[in-house]
Amino acid sequence: MRGIPSVLSIAGTDPTGGAGIHADLKTFQECKSYGMAVVTSVVAQNTEGVRDVWHLPVEALEEQIKAVLEDIPPHVIKTGMIATPAMIEKTAELLEGKNIPLVIDPVMVATSGDTLMEDESTSIMKNRLFPLAEVVTPNMDEAKLLTGIDIQSQKDAEKAAKLLVDEMGVTAAVVKGGHFTGDAEDVVYYNGEIDIVSAPRTETKHTHGTGCTFSAAIAANLARGMEIKEAISESKSFITNAISNTLGIGRGNGPVNHWGSRFSRDEIIRE
C-alpha cells in the first residue's frame, strides 16, 4: 500500500492566503494530498505588494524539516521561497540521499515585482538544489535569471528548458509562458523531448499565487502516483481553472481561486 499521499512545502508565508505555504496547503488539499509546511520566511505582503520580509534562523528551518521527516516522511517535497544562501545549503544538506522527489518553484520575484531572494542564493540553488530536483517550474523572468537566456519566443523557452535539464541536472523543466500573448503555453522538457502544454488565456489581473499553486499541484499529483507528464498536464488544468474562475478579491493582483475546479465565484459568494 502506498498510503496517504503527503507533500511537504518549504516556503515563505502570505498573510492574505494567496501565495507561499498558504496557497500550497490549499492546493495540496484540493489535489487530494495531505499537506505539511515548513516556514522559511515570514512575509508581510498582500495583493498590492511586499511590505517587509523576515527570514527565520537556519536552525529554525533545520528543526522544522527534521521534525517532519522523522515523523511523516512526505512522498514529495516542494520548495518555494528559500531566500538566503545558508537556508538553501541547509535544505540541500537535509534532503540529499533521502530519495524523495523534489519540485522546485524558484521563487525570485513576486508578481508585484518585489525581489524575494538574495543574489548569491541563485547560484547556490542551481548548484545544490537543482541536481536533486524532479521538476523545476520557472516563469520566463526566472528562467532568464537562471540560464542567461532572454526569452522572447517559444524557441528561447525551449533552449532554457533544455539547459536546465542537460546542464543543471534537473529531471524535468517547465518554463511557463504565462507572460506571452495568445494561449498560455508552457514548455516542458523531459526525457529528451519537448512538449507544449497549452490552455486558453484568461484576461485578468487576479493571478497572485499562480506559480506557487501550479508547482504545488504538480507535487501533489506526483505524490498521488502520477508520472511527470501526467502530473504537469493535470496541474495545468488545475491552475487554468483557478485563474479562469477568479474570486476577484483584493485591491491589487488578487489571488487565484483554489476552489476553481469545483466552485466558481458565483457559487462561493455569500448573499
Helix and strand sequence:
EHEEEHEHEHEHHEEEHHH
* Average predicted confidence as pLDDT: 92
- Distance between the ends: 45 Å
Rounded Rg:
17 Å
**Ranges with pLDDT <50 over ≥5 residues?**
none
**Helix segment count?**
9
Morphology: globular
What is the count of β-strands? 10
Helix content: 25-40%
* β-strand amount: 15-25%
Structural class: alpha/beta
Strand order of the largest sheet: 2-1-5-6-7-8-9-10
Describe the largest sheet: 8 strands, mixed
Architecture overview:
The structure is a single chain. With 271 residues, the chain is of the alpha/beta class. The chain has nine helices and ten strands. It has helices spanning 20-30, 58-71, 85-95, 119-129, 140-147, 154-166, 210-223, 228-244, 265-268; strands spanning 6-11, 34-39, 41-46, 49-55, 76-79, 102-104, 135-136, 172-175, 184-190, 193-199. Strand 6, helix 4 and strand 7 form a beta-alpha-beta unit.
Please sum up the structure shown.
The chain is α/β, with parallel strands linked by helices. The protein contains nine helices and ten strands. It is 38% helix and 19% strand.
